[in-house]
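Example S7 (structure tokens).
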């Protein structure tokens, strides 16, 4: 802190020589003149003194018969004198400060975290439709409105947080592990319910009912749209007749067994690339929507691929600005036609089946059995797989309102 104060006020480095330098130093102390960083060089002394105190040394030098010479000028007052002589440099500093201050008032990056069901592309399109995009002013952002709009648009999102981090808008979301089956407010009322229906053809292999009136049992074959559990429960009177119906949302764990086919095709021949090692590199600068060529890669190869990397420029970690540096690399290769070996084709087929099975398991499909058939015709391998699986059933539809004889009489 002391060094900063000295820099702001300004100070000089002096060389003291003459008949009695020790007396000079003592008199400075008597007159409350601060000297620091005093060094004895034998025939002379060097020391530092504040700019204001320097003008008080004239009388002391006369009394002591010493001579003071300035060897170095330090501090802001001397720096400003130099800067004032360079008006263009000073104007550049001022304009740069104004530019950074102006840029700090805008959003130059939008970052989304925590999303799984809602892809980043879908969320970005939604934000753009609501005029939330890069280049907008920060003061136009209402964080609570942004959070509310996202929750209203995507029912799977259970929690949202929007905040500014430098010039980046950071949106954090948390999604429900299970997608909602019906909209909020459709849980069923005393006069309205929901039936659980089959969403595909199959055979019931498991059924546990929690609420509602089951109308099928294990082993029954059902078709798509058939009612499995009714959303109305009959209430009997003393004579064993239906007095009224109570409506609810049918809730049950129902698993259906069914089979289906999938077919994939693999060409017998493929193009194999051999890279020659020749490369061309280029550099681009993207400012807003305009691009500037900093280094042209030249004409692209007749056969080659292009790798581009984009990096947004930033200051101080989170202060992003609308300048993008794009590096481009073109690599040359030659192609030749090859024929897959049997082991390679089988490996591709196994990988395709494995990825499809993993997708089914993510959706709750279990007990997967498969019958694989491979055919070849006109240079193409056809992979036909018949799957036999069990999967949960979760279709819903509104329950039909039923009238009892008692209600009709009323």
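Recovered sequence:
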């Amino acid at each position: 802190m002391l060094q900063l104060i000295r820099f702001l006020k300004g100070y000089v480095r002096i060389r003291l020589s003459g008949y009695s330098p020790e007396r000079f130093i003592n008199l400075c102390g008597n007159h409350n003149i601060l000297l620091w960083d005093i060094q004895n060089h034998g025939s002379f002394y060097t020391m530092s003194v504040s700019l204001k105190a320097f003008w008080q040394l004239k009388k002391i030098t006369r009394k002591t018969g010493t001579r003071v010479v300035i060897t170095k000028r330090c501090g802001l007052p001397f720096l400003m004198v130099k800067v004032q002589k360079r008006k263009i440099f000073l104007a550049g500093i001022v304009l740069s400060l104004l530019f950074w201050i102006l840029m700090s008032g805008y959003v130059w990056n939008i970052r989304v975290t925590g999303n799984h069901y809602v892809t980043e592309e879908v969320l970005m399109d939604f934000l753009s439709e609501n005029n939330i995009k890069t280049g907008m002013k920060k003061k136009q952002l209402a964080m609570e409105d942004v959070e509310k709009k996202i929750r209203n648009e995507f029912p799977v999102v259970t929690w949202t947080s929007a905040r500014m981090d430098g010039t980046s808008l950071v949106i954090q979301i948390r999604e429900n592990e299970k997608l909602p089956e019906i909209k909020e407010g459709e849980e069923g009322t005393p006069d309205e319910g929901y039936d659980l229906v089959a969403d595909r053809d199959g055979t019931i292999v498991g059924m546990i009912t929690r609420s509602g009136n089951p109308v099928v049992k294990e082993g029954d074959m059902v078709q798509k749209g058939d009612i499995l559990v009714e959303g109305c429960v009959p209430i009997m009177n003393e004579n064993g007749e239906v007095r009224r119906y109570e409506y609810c949302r049918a809730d049950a764990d129902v698993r259906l067994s069914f089979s289906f086919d999938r077919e994939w095709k693999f060409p017998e021949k493929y193009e194999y690339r051999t890279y020659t090692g020749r490369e061309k590199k280029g550099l681009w600068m993207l400012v807003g929507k305009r691009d500037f060529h900093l280094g042209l890669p030249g004409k692209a190869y007749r056969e080659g691929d292009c790798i581009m990397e984009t990096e947004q420029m930033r200051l101080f970690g989170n202060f992003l600005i609308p300048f993008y540096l794009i590096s481009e690399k073109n690599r040359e290769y030659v192609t030749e036609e090859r024929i897959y070996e049997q082991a390679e084709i089988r490996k591709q087929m196994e990988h395709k089946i494995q990825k499809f099975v993993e997708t089914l398991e993510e959706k709750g499909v279990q007990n997967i059995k498969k019958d694989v058939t491979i055919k070849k015709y006109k240079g193409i391998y056809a992979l036909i797989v018949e799957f036999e699986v069990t999967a949960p059933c979760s279709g819903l539809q509104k329950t039909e309102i039923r009238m009892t004889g008692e209600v009709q009489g009323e």
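Notes on this example. Residues 2-80 form a domain with the Alpha-Beta Plaits fold (CATH 3.30.70.260).
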